[in-house]
Amino acid sequence: MEVAAGAVAFEAATTTLEGGAIAGYAIAQKTMPLKATFTQIATSPQTSDRSSLCRLGHTVSVVDGKAYIFGGTTTEAICTNEMHILTLPSKSSETGTQYKCVPALSVEHQKEVPPPRCYHSATVHGEDILVYGGKDDDGLSLQEESKLWKFNTKTLQWSCLQYAEDEAGSGHAIYGHGATIQDDQLVIYGGVRSTPSEKQFRSPNLITLGLKVFTKRVAKHAMEPATCFPANLVAIDDAVYTINGDDELSTNVRQINLEAAMASRPATLEGDRGIKEIAIPSNPLAPGPKGPRDGAALIPVSTGHGRHYLIYMFGTTPSQAIVNANSSTPGKTSQASSFCSDAWTLQIPSSDLSLSGAKDKARDVLGMDSGSWSWSEVEIKTDTGESEHEGKLHPGPRAFAGYAAIDDRSILVWGGQDAAHNAVGDGWIIRFE
Q: What angle in degrees, to the nearest 10, is found between the helix axes of 2-28 and 355-365?
């Protein structure tokens, strides 16, 4: 019995040591870099048709395994207002993408459908895709300041939500803005307004449109206008994020607490306004994307257990021609811009209540870097599986594509503008691990 008891005690001690070793190993494991696999799932031929899927300045939204491509412009003209629908392949097979094109149809009690547009926003809310803003074929803001279009992915019909007009508003919408959903609100930030009487006004407004209670709110204290075009906006937990900056020395990530930013009381400090600025390192030896970008993607991903990242990838160095050209196809005018093909992750601090938050606290106690607010370049893995699009392993430099999250760890990219300033029409799934 004594021998047996000793064996049990030894086994328990061994288990404790093994458990501690495993926990220590887990804490010591770095959270970055993430690895990504790029898989091309579809291509579209180059045509001069306005319905061509070779486009830029469009949006792509993913709902229940289907991608919905809307709006944008070809190299020559604004695209038509059909909805292009792709059935995405499953994880086990990256081939066999199905496609159909749906004309713009309204619900029975309404006669309106959204006119063609580019540089609008599209966000997913349940089974609906919410489209806001944009500009027309003349390069002017659409006269839709308080209209929100809703496309139902079950009925394939459009309806229009009309919000109260601003007293001092021009009646024109913005374009090149950022939009995201938080707490049943559509959050809109930045963008540009261009009218026959008002050329290229950069909006400093932070706006929310209620989706259950149909109210419109505008932050009482205007923020700095977004300088990147289009502005990006991402919601993670109780904050929204955007990237802003005029040059490499002032580029930053902006974290916004929505309710604090929308509060009516006067604000004297940035913190009082619910805004936190996190500078992107300008030192060429420090990891991080250098300088602000136009036409880049800012997408949230998660590796589970409360660990969140912002993916910042592609885009082109800002050119005033992009914003100032009075045209729906500005890309042809910006020959001096430099296109990017890299991808970066920014690790967002984890909630204290999550497993990742507990791991980060343990790292802090041990004097180890948790990785919060740090950048790392994504490592590219080669897709060794069979593909019907063999030969191309990466989209290459591009900007103004359509970007959307498929799930917590994968992103869809469609189209955009390549380094030769041509509209492209291919689709890629990027999976992170």
A: 90
21 pLDDT more than 60: no
Single-letter amino acid, residue 54:
C
Q: In this structure, are strands 192-195 and 234-236 parallel, antiparallel, or unpaired?
A: unpaired
pLDDT of residue 350: 83
d(CA 348, CA 238): 12
Torsion over CA of 50, 56, 59 and 63, rounded to 10 degrees? 80
pTM assigned to the model: 0.86
Q: Give SS3 for 167.
A: coil
Reading the block at residue 4, the tokens are: 């047996």
pLDDT on residue 140: 93
Say whether 130 sits in a helix, a strand or coil.
Answer: strand
**What is the per-residue pLDDT for 197?**
82
DSSP for 60-105, written as a single string: EEEETTEEEEE--B-SSSB--SPEEEEEPPPTT-----EEEEE---
Question: How does pLDDT run across 114-125, given as a tens digit for each residue?
Answer: 999 999 999 999
**Domains in the chain, start-ordered, CATH in brackets?**
33-432 (2.120.10.80)
One-letter amino acid identity for 88?
L
CB 31 within 8 A of CB 371: yes
Mean pLDDT of the residues in the chain: 83
Distance CA 257, CA 390 (A): 45
